[in-house]
């Protein structure tokens, strides 16, 4: 009896700790790192890079720039030193969401889905008076949390694995049926759970599981050859574990390299295919920028179909982070300039890719 009570207490303690430290997103929008904000605001990109990679022999940060119709990239290592131009494979974390919503835009253009539709139209859910619309999910204004606790998270935490591995679509649908949100305007709350739900909607719209559906879309429609749902293959290692049927794949499971990501940025910047123009129109005015982020020039003034929109700097952007990687993609359509930063360092390690990306991109606009 004592052993059972002890085991129960231990499990409850693990769950409590898990709630306190589990990753709330695949890279959120807070300013990470312990560096003083005032100092950071005055730093150049080179200074940020040198500080972030200082005495770190494992650091591999790739920076890509799109300007004047040309693409170029550089790879940096310890103390900001340039490395050979190799195409490394990175986890892009939440930038995956923009791939999911790109496919959603295609589905909208084909008449398979409408932003005004309730998710209940596509998913087998418990009867309820109200479920959020697709538009509220892609703008993170549905009222859903960032994630909801499921049992696989305990094992993932104990084994230091991806928190979201092993959460099935069945668990996702069951959880959706238990959540009571009202038909009202909720404030912006970044939600991996909401994007996982969009992935389930797309599966129903196309009659195909998310992994092959997205991999085919990436290769056939976007023409990218080194981008895919993670199978943990790549040269940098420490990739998150995923299962092919995980419900959270649409929120953060893609691997890619710098050439593909620069091409992807240009695809969106030029809105080719045409249906991608849907993604860049502000659907919800959210004013979600924190005071610290604004000091760094990072703004979320409105949200499109999965993309963050910075009206002050005229930038459309997204970022991402996993346990061991963080990334940034942003572009200015008017000036046709874009930046991609891929890093094999955690999002809370010194200065993240988002801050460096904004610094480069705003300098290109001058």
The major β-sheet equals:
9 strands, antiparallel
Rg over C-alpha atoms, rounded to the nearest angstrom: 20 Å
- The CATH architecture comes to 3-Layer(aba) Sandwich
Considering the protein shown, what is the CATH homologous superfamily? DD-peptidase/beta-lactamase superfamily
CATH class: Alpha Beta
Keyword list:
14% strand, Beta-lactamase, disordered N terminus, 13 helices, 366 residues
Would you mind describing this structure in some detail?
The chain is α+β, with helices and mostly antiparallel strands. The chain has one domain (9-364): DD-peptidase/beta-lactamase superfamily (Beta-lactamase, 3-Layer(aba) Sandwich), CATH 3.40.710.10. The chain contains 13 helices and twelve strands. The chain has helices spanning 2-21, 37-41, 45-52, 96-109, 134-138, 152-158, 169-178, 192-206, 210-221, 249-252, 258-270, 291-295, 353-364; strands at 61-67, 70-76, 82-83, 90-91, 228-229, 254-256, 284-285, 302-303, 308-310, 315-321, 326-332, 337-343. The strands form two sheets. It has a nine-stranded antiparallel β-sheet with strand order 3-2-1-12-11-10-9-8-7, with helices on both faces. A three-stranded antiparallel β-sheet has the order 4-6-5. Helix 7 packs across helix 8. The longest helix has 20 residues, at 2-21.
């Amino acid at each position: 009896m004592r052993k059972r009570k002890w085991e129960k207490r231990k499990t409850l303690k693990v769950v409590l700790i898990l709630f306190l430290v589990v990753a709330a997103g695949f890279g959120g929008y807070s300013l990470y790192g312990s560096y003083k904000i005032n100092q950071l605001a005055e730093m150049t990109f080179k200074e940020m890079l040198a500080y972030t990679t200082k005495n770190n022999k494992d650091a591999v940060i790739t920076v890509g720039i799109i300007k004047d119709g040309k693409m170029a990239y550089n790879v940096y290592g310890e103390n900001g030193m340039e490395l050979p131009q190799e195409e490394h494979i990175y986890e892009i974390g939440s930038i995956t969401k923009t791939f999911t919503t790109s496919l959603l835009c295609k589905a909208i253009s084909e008449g398979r889905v409408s932003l005004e539709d309730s998710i209940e139209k596509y998913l087998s859910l418990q009867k309820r008076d109200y479920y959020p619309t697709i538009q509220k999910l892609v703008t993170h204004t549905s009222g859903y949390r960032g994630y909801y606790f499921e049992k696989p998270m305990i094992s993932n935490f104990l084994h230091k694995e991806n928190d979201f591995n092993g959460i099935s679509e069945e668990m996702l649908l069951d959880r959706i049926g238990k959540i009571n949100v009202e038909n009202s305007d909720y404030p912006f709350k970044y939600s991996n759970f909401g994007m996982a739900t969009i992935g389930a909607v797309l599966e129903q719209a196309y009659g195909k599981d998310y992994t092959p559906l997205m991999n085919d879309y990436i290769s056939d429609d976007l023409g990218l050859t080194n981008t895919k749902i993670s199978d943990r293959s790549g040269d940098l290692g420490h990739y998150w574990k995923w299962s092919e049927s995980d419900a959270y794949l649409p929120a953060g499971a893609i691997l890619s390299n710098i050439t593909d990501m620069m091409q992807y940025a240009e695809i969106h910047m030029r809105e080719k295919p045409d249906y991608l123009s849907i993604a860049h129109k502000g659907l919800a005015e959210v004013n979600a920028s924190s005071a610290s982020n604004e000091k760094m020039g990072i703004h979320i003034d409105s949200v499109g179909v999965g993309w963050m929109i910075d009206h002050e700097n005229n930038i459309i952007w997204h970022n991402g982070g996993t346990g061991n990687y963080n990334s940034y993609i942003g572009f200015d359509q008017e000036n046709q300039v874009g930046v991609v930063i891929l890093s094999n360092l955690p999002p809370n390690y010194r200065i993240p890719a988002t801050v460096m990306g904004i610094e480069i991109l705003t300098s290109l606009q001058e």
